[in-house]
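Suppose a colleague, Dr. K., hands you the sequence of a protein chain of 110 amino acids and asks what its three-dimensional shape might be. Before reaching for any lab equipment, you can write down a predicted structure in token form. Begin with the sequence itself:
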Amino acid sequence: MLALDAPLMASTQDLDLTQRLRENAWIGDAVLELYVRSLILKQQGKVDAEMKTRFTCNQFLSCTGNPTAVEADIGVIYQREGLEPAFAWIRKTLEPLFLKQEAKRKRTGK
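The predicted structure, expressed as tokens, is then:
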């Protein structure tokens, strides 16, 4: 009987972890959006929804890992340490890669 209960408990724990990951990612997504929108306005002086989408899309985030996990990392940093540490993580981890991709995109015209 105990052996039958173990997989059920494991799957319940997996569901809890998945739920926490989604919740943290939901918060992290909002923090990332705020960072990117602020960055674009500061650098370009105008709204650029296409650039914002390129920076925040799952295709870009997957360059550094599972997109949900990346957003969850941002969410955890924000919840534990605040907005500026979360922004600093984005600035250090994601922004250089994004700028590199943007430079390449401009060179190739894609």
